[in-house]
Every structure is written in structure tokens, then in C-alpha cells.
Amino acid sequence: MNKKEVAEIKKNFTDSSGFFTLNHIVSVYVDPQKNIRCSENKLYSLIPEDEGAVMLESLKKVLGGSVGKNLVEYSFPNEEYQEDGAQNIFYAAVKGKLEDEASNAKLIERIVNNMEYEMAYTLIIGYCSYSIMVKDKNDETYDEAAEEYNFIVTAVCPVCTGDDGLMFDSESNTIVKKANTDLIISRTPTDGFFYPVFSDRSPDVNRVMYFTKTPKKPNISVIEDVLGCNFIMTCQNEKETFQQVLTDVVGDELSYTVITQVNESLREIVTKSKNETEMPLIDDNKLHNILFDAGVSSDKLDALPAVFKEKVGEADGLTAENLIENKTVLSTPEITINISRDATDKVRTSVIDGRRCLVIDLDDPSISINGLTTSLT
After folding, report:
1. Strands 202-204 and 197-199: what pairing?
2. What letter would DSSP give residue 215?
């Protein structure tokens, strides 16, 4: 799913949309020892309005965040199409519309037995229907539907007791510590997935979308053991891999100017593609052009294809948006300078009186030091 397709489903994931219906909801409470303490299957229309609104909110958040960061799409390996494989279990749950208890039990068992989670949690699983709006060649939609997209959304919501601290007891006129033993189910899921994905205006049963609240630390057990997919790099892994490629290829030519110019080139690529549905990827050919424009010598660039292949592997490339630095941080053991994206051209390196120096151009002699305003003359 690209960002436009995710946005379309998310926009219509509401009771007020005439194209979307949340049909059944399965909710399961699991304690830290993986024991299922409660399991309920209800028609959404029969759930009290306030309770249903919270469940709808949690499920919708599984479609939140950025594609490529919070949302990562995975293809099922061949073995997951077998009877006990993830694809087969998820497909059966969708076909059963969460009304078939046998299919539901297999789905819940797959999640509970395979997911590593450090605390109690609640699974909220919704069976949804979206009437796919017809689009013309100009990407405009009509108020009619060609077919229906049926899918399940699963939210993993942590459960914990709240700590409300001190309180005033009006009966004894004293301040006391409030004891709170209620198990509170978070509205915000830490992990989740929806299946099948919505691609090219139709369901794709061969792929699943994983959601994580923390892109830098996804729950790999959900990806590999629940979804049965092969984990790929996180957004942080992509940035670290990119930095390794630059270090190994550019070597002693990796200067302040090269680093900032590469970052600006990546930003331009992302900006130009902001209205496109697919996120731009940086492969070795695109990186070659970026580095060449930044002044890296041809001798260095000859090593790029082999290094890129070694570091990135079989992936099509690295997500450009995940490689951008929003600010430039220049540091030595004694000094750290944060440079905003619009001021990189005001900083340069130079050799003055035989000493290597960092020179900062000041348009205004007034500066602030430790919160105190002074001026350089």
C-alpha cells in the first residue's frame, strides 16, 4: 500500500463514512503469562456507543503514522500459505467475517502463542468492509462503488494500573496516596496489523501491513512469529546503513560540504515526490549521482555498487525520507553545535594560521550565550 491508499482507508475509517462499515469486534484480554482471561465477540452495532467509539479509535490508530516508518508492508513467504501458516489463518478469518469461532480461535492462538510481550494486553480485532469508490482517469472519485474490500484490523493495546499519586481526602481532610488497582486498557496500540492490504484499488491477499507505535523499536516477534514474514530494516537501521555506505565509499573525502550537500539532495528528492503515491527509494545508481554532484571523485565511486550490495542486500533501495537529517550536528569531544537546515551554508571549515577552524558567518553580530544577549565586534 502506498501513502495515498492508506490515507483513503484511514479517511473513511469512521461511522460517518457511507462507504465504511465496522461489522464484528473480537476483544481478548491476555495476562503476562499468556493466559487468555477474557474473550468476547460482538456485533459493533450492538456495543454501547461510548465503548464502541473507544474500540473504533484504537483500531483506526493501526492505520496511523508514516508509511515506511510506522507502517511497513510485508509479503508472506511460501511456507505461510500452508494450513497452519499465517496467510492461511488470516485469510480464513476474513472469509469467516469474525463470525466463525474456529477461524477466530486459530487467529487468536497464532497471536497469543507467538507474540513476545512484557505485560498484559488486550487484542482488539475488527472485521471491516469498505465499498471501493470508482475513480476516473483524473483520479477523481464517483459516489458509487465497484466492489467491496473486506479486511481485519488487529490492535495490540497494553494494559496497566494507573498511578494517580496523592489525593485530598475530603472526609479526613488529609492528603493521602491514592491506591489504584484498576486495569486500564490503553487507547493507543503499540503494535497491530491489517490484512489483506488495499493495493491498486483491490485487496491483495498475499501481503499484510504491520503497524508499530515505535518505528525505531518494532516488535520483531509480531513480524516474524505472528505474521510469519521476514523482518526488514527499521527506519533507524536504514539511516545507519546509509551512513556505513557513505563512510566506506567516500572515506577521506567525507567533508562537511559533502555531508550537507548529500542531505540537501535527499531533501529535494523527497520534496519533489510529495504528491506522488510511492515513496522514493535510493538505490546505488541514484546515490552515485548524488555523490558525484557533491564532488566525490570517480575513483571513490567505483566502489559504490559492491559496497551498496553488501550493506543493503536484496532490498530495492533505502527509503529517502528515512535518510534525511532535520538538523546538522557538528561535534568534537569538547564542543557540539546544532545547525538548522536553513543555516548549513553559513558554516564552513578553513585553515587559519595553520590551525584547522570552523567558521560561522554571522549576518547579525548579536548572539545569545547561556541565555544572555551580547554581540561580537
Report:
1. antiparallel
2. T
Give 330's contacts (C-beta < 8 A, 6+ positions apart).
256, 336, 337, 339, 347, 358
Is 317 in contact with 311 (CB distance < 8 Å)? no
- Quote the cell numbers at residue 50: 461510548
Q: Do 320 and 266 contact (CB within 8 A), yes or no?
A: yes
Q: d(Cα 205, Cα 50) in Å, to the nearest integer? A: 33
**3-state secondary structure at position 123:** strand
* Residues whose CB is less than 8 angstroms from the CB of residue 190 and which lie 6 or more positions away in sequence, other chains included: 121, 156, 157, 158, 212, 213, 214, 219
Report whether pLDDT(201) > 90.
no
Closest CA to 122 of 70, 71, 54: 54
Q: Fill in the DSSP letter of residue 294.
A: T
- 21-35, 294-308, 341-355: range with lowest mean pLDDT: 341-355
Domain ranges of the chain: 3-158+187-231, 236-323, 327-375
Residue 336 has pLDDT above 90, yes or no: no
**Strand pairing partners for 124?**
27, 155
**Cβ of 367: how many Cβ atoms within 10 Å?**
12
pLDDT of 116-142, one tens digit each? 999 999 999 999 999 987 766 666 655
Residue 247 backbone dihedrals phi, psi, to 5 degrees: -60, -45
Look at residue 80 and give its three-state secondary structure.
Answer: helix
Query: Could you please report the per-residue DSSP string of 9-74?
Result: HHHH-STT-TTEEEEEEEEEEE-TTS-EEEEEEEEGGGS-HHHHHHHHHHHHHTT-S-BTTTEEEE
Average pLDDT over residues 78-94: 95
Q: What is d(CA 344, CA 260) in angstroms, rounded to the nearest whole number?
A: 7
Copy the grid coordinates of residue 309.
550490495
Q: Map residue 304 onto helix, strand or coil.
A: helix
Q: Compute the distance between CA of residue 21 and CA of residue 14 in angstroms, rounded to an integer.
A: 8
Beta partners for residue 199, in sequence order: 202
- Which ranges of the chain does DSSP label H, i.e. alpha helix? 3-12, 49-61, 86-95, 101-114, 220-221, 235-250, 256-272, 284-293, 298-301, 304-312, 320-323
Rounded to 5 degrees, φ, ψ at 347 are -115, 135
